[in-house]
Design goal:
globular, alpha+beta, 4 helices
Length: about 110
């Protein structure tokens, strides 16, 4: 299993964009990906079209019970190959409906 971490203490350097690109590339190659969103802005969680998550990264970090991280894994709107441990979007931020339901696979009728 390959583990890739995308992190930086500085904001605005493209962490969410790179994470979404890596998840999309894995999905396009029929690999599975687990995205763990720790950003309180929740940009990756919103872009990856996560349905209402039962548990969030905050719950996982606050709860030391064995298996709580496994319980927090939620399927994304991108399909079965990309799962996520979501973060809670900031209060007052509506769920965005403009995000694609899945990234188009290269060569498909929906890709350019």
């Amino acid at each position: 299993m390959t583990v890739v971490a995308v992190l930086s203490m500085k904001g605005g350097v493209g962490k969410s964009t790179v994470t979404l690109g890596l998840a999309s590339a894995a999905w396009a190659r029929d690999l599975t990906a687990l995205v763990i969103d720790l950003d309180p802005q929740a940009n990756t969680t919103m872009a990856i079209d996560v349905p209402d998550a039962t548990f969030t990264t905050s719950d996982v970090l606050a709860d030391a019970r064995p298996g709580v991280a496994q319980d927090a894994i939620t399927p994304s709107g991108w399909g079965s190959g990309v799962s996520v441990i979501a973060t809670s979007p900031p209060a007052g931020i509506p769920r965005c409906d403009f995000a694609p339901r899945w990234p188009p696979r290269p060569g498909s009728s929906t890709s350019s």
